[in-house]
Each structure stands twice: as C-alpha cells, then as structure tokens.
C-alpha cells in the first residue's frame, strides 16, 4: 500500500473489476476518499454539484465492515434515489489511532453532497453492481491511513 501522498485515491490494476486505494491522515479521511473513488468509478464527479445533502448513519462489527457498509449505503442511495455525490464527510463514534483498534465495532455518521444523476452532464462510466471484501485492506503507514477494496462491475 502507499506510494501516493497522503489524502486522495488512485485506481489499481484489476482484470475485470474496479480496484482502488484511498488514503488520509485519519481513517475518517480515508473513508471519505473511498466514497469519492466509488463515485468516480461510476461517473465524472467533477461535474457533480453540491445541491443535496444526504446523511448516512450506520455501523460495522469492525472497521472493515464499516468501510463496506459506508460504500454499500452510498451505492444504495445512488441506485434507489439516483443521487450522485462529489463531497463526503464522515465522523466515527470513537477515534481510531492504531491498527490494533480495527477489530472493534465502529459506528459512523456520514454526509454526502451531490445532485440528481444526469447521464449527459455526469458522463456515466461504469455500473457498480456491488461493494466487495475482495482485496480489502486497512493499514496505517507513516502516519497515513490506507483503505482499499474491489468494486464488482
């Protein structure tokens, strides 16, 4: 993992699906960039305007499940309400400072901001069928958190 500056996302090589790594100075920031990577997989987020805010409240049995649930909740909102997001904010119920804390339950309050999907404006790219646990990792290196997973296309 790593190899990028802390704070952002990049797409990694995968044969058939979308595989990304997101990073941040906090685990929350890495989750926020993971949301951005999810939507960038589906459409051009630079053309999405922040007009509608949506709250996402959920929890995971551990940090991996919380990452899965965060992305899955965003994908469900996209598919059901046809909302595309470009800005993300997430707050955990506790600070995660060390990888040894990843196995503990994690609740979160997230907010995504965007607008109704317009295929002509947003340049729809891929249909994400599901978030997966495939190649999912959460690591901390040099004071930077990295999360990665595969999206089923």
How is this structure best described in words?
- The structure is a single chain.
- The model has no long low-confidence stretch (mean pLDDT 96).
- The radius of gyration is 14 Å and the shape is globular.
- The chain has helices spanning 27-42, 63-81, 119-122, and strands spanning 8-12, 18-24, 52-60, 83-92, 106-116, 130-131, 137-141, 144-152.
- 25% of the residues lie in helices and 38% in strands.
- Helix 1 runs parallel beside helix 2 (63-81).
The fraction of residues assigned to DSSP E strands is 35-45%
Regions with little confidence, pLDDT below 50 for 5+ residues: none
What is the second-level CATH architecture?
A: 3-Layer(bab) Sandwich
* Overall pLDDT metric: 96
Biggest sheet layout = 5 strands, antiparallel
Helix fraction, binned, reads: 25-40%
The CATH class designation is: Alpha Beta
**What order do the SSEs take from the amino end to the carboxyl end, as H and E?**
EEHEHEEHEEE
| Rg calc | 14 Å
User: How many β-strand stretches?
Assistant: 8
State the helix count.
3
Number of domains: 1
CATH topology: Archease, Possible Chaperone, Chain: A, domain 1
Structural class: alpha+beta
Q: For the terminal residues, how far apart are their CA atoms?
A: 23 Å
CATH H level, superfamily name: Archease domain
Global outline: globular
């Amino acid at each position: 993992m790593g190899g990028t500056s802390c704070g952002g996302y990049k797409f990694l090589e995968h044969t058939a699906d979308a595989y990304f790594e997101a990073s941040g100075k906090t685990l929350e920031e890495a989750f926020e960039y993971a949301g951005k990577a999810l939507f960038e997989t589906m459409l051009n987020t630079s053309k999405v305007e922040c007009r509608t805010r949506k709250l996402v409240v959920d929890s995971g049995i551990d940090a991996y499940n919380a990452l899965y649930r965060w992305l899955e909740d965003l994908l469900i909102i996209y598919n059901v309400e046809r909302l595309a997001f470009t800005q993300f904010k997430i707050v955990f119920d506790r600070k995660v400072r060390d990888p040894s804390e990843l196995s503990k339950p994690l609740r979160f309050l997230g907010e995504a901001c965007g607008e109704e999907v317009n295929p002509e404006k947003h340049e729809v790219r891929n249909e994400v069928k599901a978030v997966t646990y495939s190649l999912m990792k959460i690591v901390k290196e040099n004071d930077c958190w990295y999360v990665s997973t595969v999206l089923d296309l």
